[in-house]
Amino acid sequence: MFGVGSGPLRHAALACVCMLWALSACGDDGEADDRRPVGGDGGVDAGLDAGAMASDAPPGVVVRELEGGGGIFLGEAMAPELPDGWVEQELSIAAEAVSYEAEGMLPADGFFELTAADRADYRTRVVVRRPPAAEFGGTVVVEWLNVSGGVDANPDYAFLKEELLRSGVVWVGVSAQHIGVEGGPVLVSTPASEAAGAGMGLKARDPERYGELAHPGDAFAYDIYTQVARALRGEGAEALLGGLEAERILAVGESQSAYMLTTYANGVQPLERAYDGFLIHSRGGGRAPLGEVDSGINLVSGITAPATRIRTDLEAPVLILQTETDMLFTLNYFPARQPDSDRLRTWEVAGTAHADAFLLGAMAEAQGCPEPINAGPLHFVAKAALRHLDRWVALGEAPPAGTPLEVDGMPPALSRDADGIALGGIRTPHVDAPVDVLSGAPPGGSIACSLFGSTLPLGPERLAELYASREDYLAAYDEAAGAVIDAGFVLEEDREALLADADPERAAP
Prior knowledge:
- The protein is α/β, with parallel strands linked by helices.
- It has a domain of 310 residues.
- Helix content is 28%, strand content 17%.
- The chain has a nine-stranded mixed sheet, sandwiched between helices. A two-stranded antiparallel ribbon has the order 10-11.
- The longest helix is centred in the last third of the chain and has 18 residues.
């Protein structure tokens, strides 16, 4: 099980850094059957041969289970604490991968026309967390591990874990990128990440466990990610899934990984059709480059790339989940915003930040930022996003359409009320019955702090204007909680946790 020898990577400070952008380089009560949809005639890809391959490259071959050394190494804030009967394994997977090339610039409309280019052998690792057969709902989530901080990190597992566990979803984390395996220059560095050896790569960190791995460069990262999906449906399924059979395979990635999935969805998915749906979480306006041989990607070229939409002819549905921080500022998703369609939903969530206190946990107060960081209501919406994407793929039931955040002015800025709370967007009781002003705007301070947003308390006089009593506050909070749950943006199973975030002691004397 996870935890042996994981050392400093249990610290939330490093876990959050592992998902940050290269800003420094830029210069600045349903029944169980309802919760676990099964595939069948109603799916969005009915009649589609799921996992059909356009190239002649083989699926990834599971080589062996990785053991020994210091144990499984992941940049996460805390041990997974898996329920009884769940299994965690780490395995090496290998094959020959292809790179991709395009004629000219990748177009802003997302209609990438890619062709296979070079070929190279690889051997990488995957981490699998799976339920017992009786609890498995048929869904496998494959997270593109994030490497911005110089190690493989799994931020989306942290945001989604309650939904993964209660719905019996297999989680697979893939070391898709060069720096995670081989090491290299770190895009975003902090004292905590430096102390933990960020940029070393798995092989140098623990040669006993990972010495056999070999990554030929991020030009091959996209096909490596494809081949993991193929292995989950092919001969590798027994080793990876322990006899479970994947009915749906969903691609998930946050921050830098969302950049990679944007390029993947636009260019590779139409060729390989390896994934059944995409949850693209906190993307910027551009897209990742196609990568180079023997090195990691230059993410700066993605951040500065022209705004790029998701192509509109995908068969696999895409749900884009965005915070306030992602919309403007350095990430600048706003120019890439596009209308919803029968295969695309975009959820923009008011009062949220790119990274937050939920992700950081106990280390949230130790970041040295000029203001307390965002309190972190995003995870409630993220879990609903995964549930809706799963049902969209399995049953053809599209998620509800989210109201966009209001943006106005030139240069564009998020519209805010008199208290500073963003207008529009998906709204939780944290912003509709507030005792604090939650924001995703950069508060200043370090590069990391620029992604953490802020939580600023409302003063006693303002609280007295808003709420005549604690009961008045609780009534407003309960009403807002019910509204977001009824709208489908927070799950009924999370009602109790959402209500527990209320703070009536602050609302009135």
